[in-house]
Amino acid sequence: MNDQVTARFRLFCLRPRVIDFHLEHFSDAHLATVLWDGVSGSAIPAWRQLDKADLEDVASYVQSIQAPVTSQSMTAAEFAAAGRIYSANCVSCHGAGGRGDGPSAGALKPSPVNFHVCQPSQARTWTVVNDGIPGSAMPAWKNTLTPDEVHLLIPYVLQTTTKNRTGLTHD
Description:
It is a single chain. The protein has 2 domains: 15-65, no CATH class; 76-166, Orthogonal Bundle (Cytochrome Bc1 Complex, Chain D, domain 2). Strands 1-2 form a two-stranded antiparallel ribbon. The N and C termini lie far apart (53 Å). It is mainly alpha-helical. 47% of the residues lie in helices and 4% in strands. Helix 2 crosses helix 3. It is built from 8 helices and 2 strands; from the N terminus they run H-E-H-H-H-H-E-H-H-H.
């Protein structure tokens, strides 16, 4: 094995998985908590030895490489259809507001994603919805949802959970 393949294998095997910041966007509050406290059970240490200015520099760097928060226009009919898809398939784990607090969430480890804290890119959302997340309760939906339904669901999730920051854009 060459060094690049070995490095990718090691990253793939880490649990919890290593986050590619180009594919996800984290709230400022979540990022600050992770930098200050680290992540228990992972290779992410607490950075409490850094002074505030250094922590702000690290946070700024991470924010500069994160996936941008994007929105996509939806008609009222598309938004309503996407809401029905979300209600039928996602609410039990992610909750009505996308906060990872659905009726089944308490029994799931790892916990479902709170989309207000972790906002995946459209590409990452497409991959997760279709392929699921190994080692979690997130199933692959590619045999349940049609591609058209997934195309409706992605902007619905991203818009619904960012409406307080970016404005909901459905006509």
